[in-house]
Amino acid sequence: MRSYLAALRSRLRSQPCLDLPFLCILLLLLSLGLLMLFSAGYAVALYRRGDAYTYIRPQLLFAALGLAAMYAASLVDYHIWHKLAWPIMGLSLLLLVIVLFMPEYNGCKRWIVLPGLGTLQPSEIAKFAVVLVFSHIISLNHDRMQGFAAGVLPFGILLGLVAVLMLLEPHLSGTLLILSIGAVLMFVGGTGLRWFALAGGLGVGAVFAAVLALPQLVPYAADRLSSWRDPFADPLGEGHQTIQSLYAIASGGVAGLGLGNSRQKYLYVPEPQNDFIFSILCEELGFVGAALVIFLFLLLLLRGITLAVRARDKFGALLVVGFVVQVVLQAILNIAVVTNTIPNTGISLPFFSSGGTSLLMLLGEMGIVLSVSRQTDAV
Asked: b vs e for 300-329, b when ≥16 Cβ sit within 10 Å of the residue's Cβ?
């Protein structure tokens, strides 16, 4: 046993160093996220479950599991994901079908109930799968990406399948995010610009087709659009969440009311521990705290781009771009919703919002980014 542990320690010491700046930024975001989750969620947790630790306790567990998964993923050669890309995509499509037979929650079917274990959100696995498969295909066909057969067709089929299944839930924000991630990877991978213009026209047609084929989306989307344009027209209905969010942001001012001192989290902002946690952050930490969080997300993006540029091959670069862009795009969409810049789409804030599946997947993805960083030249 001792000889085995000694060999393991020796192997770990021989591993190339991972990127410390990226890791530090990531750990700062995670720490702030856990702190804000407890502060924003303890009141509603106490009211709903009689236990102030209802949301933070499992989040801490998933954070610990996620950090372990991140470290393990950082030690594994990232080229192994070439072999796992298609199986994981197949699994994600299967889960996206299964979730359609699950009970509704808030008018949507986004979670698979695992008895005794909690819930699983297939859309989180779908994001991971899209990045893996797109990176896999592009790295194998990078010199043929200008053509339709290699540069457009396989990606269009995959994105179409995932988008249709997610619209059936319906999960508009998740669909938009996955389509955006796919488009970024195709652009970075070398798909011809003329195909993006064509995709724009087809996208408009797809929206109209979705409206006709999925009539349940019409009232769902129409209500969200109406409340976005004028949330005060229905202050006790569709506009309630947005109005309370704006009150929280305005109350924070420059320096905030202080950590733990939010008033809006006391059952005024619905789901303060989830999609609208950023509004509580603004109220407690003010403009300064909100700017710091946004700055950290931007630093994560910039450091990720640096790692992608220095990656030894196309596959590693695409993995880094895909995972980092996913985090930052999701943060942008969430902040835009909370500030009523775009309609409410029900999207979480990475590393901050309550959600075990999301946090575990995010940290695992960051582990892959760190794995790529082990095989780059030092700055």
From this structure: bbebbebbbebbeebbbbbbbbbbbbbbbb
